[in-house]
């Protein structure tokens, strides 16, 4: 009986040592993990923030519907370029460049469409109001591109080409407007000339006056009776 009690006590003591050892091992392992944890959480958090920023920029760019607002969203993205590229994260840099290219391509298409809409057809060229409206729109577009060409275009030559195109369309529209105004003025000038000619002719041609014929003696006059008897 005493041997069994001693054996049981020995087993219990052994179990306590084992449990204690396991607990100590687990505790030490957890501490070592915390102390030696790779410093990647901050980088991953920054990467997520940059990716989120880039995607949000693209979403905002697509939501706005005017050229000026789209340019503003593009400038916001470009302001973060140095911060994003300095991290040397290939996936972030690739995403940034892809979104940047997509925005610039969209802006170029929008500008080309605006130019086409204000390049007047032969029918529209007869309407001076449409010509003036197109002129104002192109002047505004020209001023915007001159100011923001380094933002809109990656290559300076692309901006110069677009400005040349706008200038050529403006010249053509101005020539059409001048021709239309001259054409409208022509009929009134011709009418005035005709009126002046008629007035001159009326002054130089004397009226034809028919002379008055002398009164003829009435052959049916009554003869006195005494003359008839003679």
From TrEMBL:
Origin organism lineage: Bacteria, Bacillati, Bacillota, Bacilli, Bacillales
KW Signal (keyword) present: yes
Protein name: Signal peptide protein, YSIRK family
Biased composition annotated in UniProt, kind: Low complexity: 182-217
Entry keywords, A to Z: Signal
Compositionally biased spans, kind Polar residues: 218-230
Location of region: Disordered: 182-230
Signal peptide: 1-26
